[in-house]
Design brief:
3 helices, alpha+beta, two-stranded antiparallel ribbon, 32% helix, 22% strand, binds zinc ion
């Protein structure tokens, strides 16, 4: 484990890149290293940044909830969301 006495820490992290389905704009962010929580953290942060996610209406309700939580739908950047 890490010690507080160590001044330089190497942390694992996951690098996420979201691509806008409409204009192709990308947003990059780094989240914690544990899945699936890091993925959910990325979804929450993208939403805070103004990105929105479209989940296909064809999916069942339970599936839609999962797709939304996992960020598996199509994303739109803040400009295309307006
Ligand atoms: Zn866009």
């Amino acid at each position: 484990m890490y010690s507080d006495d160590m001044p330089l820490h190497a942390m694992h992290a996951l690098h996420f890149i979201a691509a806008c389905d409409s204009c192709g704009a990308r947003s990059e962010l780094v989240c914690g290293h544990e899945l699936p929580s890091a993925r959910r953290e990325a979804v929450a942060r993208l939403t805070t940044l103004g990105w929105s996610q479209a989940v296909p209406d064809t999916e069942r309700t339970e599936t839609r909830g999962w797709v939304h939580a996992e960020g598996a739908g199509q994303w739109r950047c803040p400009l295309c969301t307006l």
